[in-house]
Amino acid sequence: MKQVTSNNKVALVFGGSRGIGAAAVRRLAKDGFAVGLTYVSRPDSAEEMVAEVMANGGQALAIKADSADAEAIQQAVQQLVSHFGRLDVVVVNAGLLRLGQIDSFTVEALDEILSVNIRGVYLAIQAAVARMGDNGRVITIGSNSAVRPLTPIGTVYGMSKAAVAAMIKGLALDLAPRGIRVNNIQPGPIETDMTIDQIDMIRGMVPLKQVGQPNDIAELVSYLASEESRYMTGASLTIDGGMSL
């Protein structure tokens, strides 16, 4: 077991090797957390993130875990706690995007999204809170598509994110007796390697005429992971430049 960082707290970011997840890892490490991050297919990105955190004086651990695999989720939490000794904050960022209209959307694609974006989120929270002390934090990364459908080909994705928004309300009540706060962030378009080819088109859809950056979401993760958010639970916070207005 290794000694944790200066604030004596540990966070786990599911889906933390790229994009929003990587930005959350950086910010939580800056805030003094020892951070674990899961990845599925990019060990290089995950290890680069660990090296970056450690080069800046922090502690990090990369864990391979597919969020469609219930056993892998359990093992990821167990590995993190075995390594750092505790768990205070979990950020559930892992998710899948599959697009298509109803006449072409396959059962396989439907099951894949539901498995990761709903079942995987619930199982990650379930595993985390079983090892988390009182007054911990659960943060999910949803989508503004839960509030307002943005395209007809995004029905299933939006449905999965609306399920997460509903899920955290019940879990907030469930976990309130333990002082565990449960909140959901609903980003709009964020500039990542997945969206870079469509940035100009996306920018035109946003009332503020700008596309969000991963750090914009990481700042909100930081707030929700802190004591400053102690009176907030069961909330879904939309951050999308006005797209869902």
CATH architecture: 3-Layer(aba) Sandwich
CA-based shape: globular
Q: What is the name of the CATH topology? A: Rossmann fold
Q: Strands of the largest sheet, in order across it?
A: 3-2-1-4-5-6-7
Distance between the termini: 48 Å
Sheet bearing the most strands, described?
A: 7 strands, parallel
Uncertain segments: none
Explain briefly what this protein structure is:
This protein is of the alpha/beta class and about 240 residues long. The protein contains seven helices and seven strands, in the order E-H-E-H-E-H-E-H-E-H-E-H-H-E. The mean pLDDT is about 95.
Give your account of this protein's structure.
One of its GO terms (molecular function) is oxidoreductase activity. Belongs to the short-chain dehydrogenases/reductases (SDR) family. This is 3-oxoacyl-[acyl-carrier protein] reductase. InterPro entries: NAD(P)-bd_dom_sf, Sc_DH/Rdtase_CS, SDR_fam. Keywords: Oxidoreductase. The structure is a single chain. The chain has helices spanning 19-30, 43-55, 70-84, 107-131, 155-175, 199-205, 214-225; strands at 10-14, 34-39, 60-64, 89-92, 137-141, 181-187, 236-239. With 245 residues, the protein is of the alpha/beta class. The chain has one domain (10-239): NAD(P)-binding Rossmann-like Domain (Rossmann fold, 3-Layer(aba) Sandwich). A seven-stranded parallel beta sheet has the order 3-2-1-4-5-6-7, sandwiched between helices. Strand 1, helix 1 (19-30) and strand 2 (34-39) form a beta-alpha-beta unit. Helix 4 (107-131) packs parallel to helix 5. The longest helix has 25 residues, at 107-131. The chain is globular and about 50 Å long.
